[in-house]
């Protein structure tokens, strides 16, 4: 099933015929035997079945803030953040099966009780499975940059999808994006700044918060002089005006 990214109407608010964002390529990717075994044995334990809507208390067996991570890749960052913040529950959404296997292994080896994995298109997950205003945060780290102009429509962080994300964040919660792709960073900054439900926590780009570890890939990019930009926007909490969650 392919669901469209809602909210891509024109400036007058009329809804143009909606086209799905297809932000990923289903690479076959080679599964290592260990990743395959992890999918077979651990997905039933740490995987979440696509369902409408997701019941976080049932999934994690407790009531705690939930952070959604979209496109966790091989899951190094997910596991590191979750290990450092055991009081927060993390839901990782990824399409790439070897990456799903890799994160499942990390969860099992590190005994991470606060991480669950959903192998599904995040655009659909957000549109159909996440109840509005239920997320403490959303992480989107190094989304595919789709550098060719004719592919920009495949970029994940477009206005319609960003609005859907903002609706799922609870008041006081945040959306944190990191990218090393300069023109995408500028586009994301403009898109997030134009989203009425969100406000920037910085003047433009934010310093990398301590909770986001440097990945190997990022450290290499930095050595080559690629700048990584963090964008952290918050959904204001009208009951706590003036107070910040950072
Ligand atoms: C460039 S990689 C970055 C991976 C990781 N966040 C990191 O920092 O290393 C982007 C990832 O997003 C995933 N992705 C892209 N669109 C997606 C979607 N709609 N739903 C789920 N995952 C998606 C891709 O499969 C890919 O693994």
Molecular structure report:
It is a single chain. The protein has 8 helices and 7 strands, in the order ααβαβαβαβαβαβαβ. It is an alpha/beta fold and 246 residues long. It has a single domain (35-240), classed as Rossmann fold (3-Layer(aba) Sandwich). A 7-stranded mixed β-sheet has the order 3-2-1-4-5-7-6, with helices on both faces. Mean pLDDT is 89; it is low at 1-17. S-adenosylmethionine is lined by residues 23-24, 70-73, 77, 93-96, 99, 121-123, 141-144, 156, 215, 217.
Name the descriptors.
16% strand, disordered N terminus, alpha/beta, 33% helix, 246 residues, binds S-adenosylmethionine, Rossmann fold, seven-stranded mixed sheet, 8 helices
How are the secondary structure elements laid out?
Blueprint: H1 33-46, H2 56-60, E1 66-70, H3 76-84, E2 89-93, H4 97-110, E3 115-118, H5 122-128, E4 135-141, H6 159-168, E5 169-179, H7 182-194, E6 199-200, H8 216-223, E7 229-234
Parallel strand pairs: 1-2, 1-4, 2-3, 4-5
Antiparallel strand pairs: 5-7, 6-7
Bound molecules: S-adenosylmethionine.
In short:
This protein is 33% helix and 16% strand. The chain is an alpha/beta fold. It has a seven-stranded mixed beta sheet with strand order 3-2-1-4-5-7-6, with helices on both faces.
CATH level 3 topology: Rossmann fold
Mean pLDDT: 89
State the end-to-end distance. Answer: 38 Å
Poorly predicted residue ranges = 1-17
CATH superfamily membership, which one? Vaccinia Virus protein VP39
**Share of residues in helices:** 25-40%
Order of H and E elements: HHEHEHEHEHEHEHE
List each distinct ligand once.
Answer: S-adenosylmethionine
């Amino acid at each position: 099933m392919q669901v469209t990214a809602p909210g891509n109407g024109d400036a007058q608010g009329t809804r143009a015929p909606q086209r799905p964002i297809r932000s990923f390529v289903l690479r076959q990717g080679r599964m290592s035997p260990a990743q395959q075994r992890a999918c077979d044995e651990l997905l039933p334990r740490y995987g979440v079945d696509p369902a409408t809507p997701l019941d976080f208390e049932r999934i994690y067996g407790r009531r705690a803030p939930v952070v959604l991570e979209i496109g966790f890749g091989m899951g190094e960052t997910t596991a590191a953040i979750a290990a450092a913040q055991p009081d927060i529950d993390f839901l990782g959404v990824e399409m790439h099966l070897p990456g799903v296997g890799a994160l499942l292994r990390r969860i099992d080896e590190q005994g991470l009780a606060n991480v669950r994995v959903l192998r599904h298109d995040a655009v659909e997950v957000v549109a159909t499975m996440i109840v509005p205003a239920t997320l403490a945060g959303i992480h989107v780290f190094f989304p595919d940059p789709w550098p060719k102009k004719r592919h920009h429509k495949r970029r994940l962080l477009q206005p319609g999808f960003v609005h859907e994300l903002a609706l799922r964040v609870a008041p006081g919660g945040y959306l944190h994006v990191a990218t090393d792709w300069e023109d995408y960073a500028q586009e994301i900054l403009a898109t997030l700044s134009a989203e009425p439900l969100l406000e920037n926590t910085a003047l433009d780009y934010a310093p990398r918060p301590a909770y986001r570890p440097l990945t190997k890939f990022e450290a290499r990019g930095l050595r080559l002089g690629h700048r990584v930009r963090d964008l952290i926007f918050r959904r204001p909490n009208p009951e706590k005006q003036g107070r910040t969650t950072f």
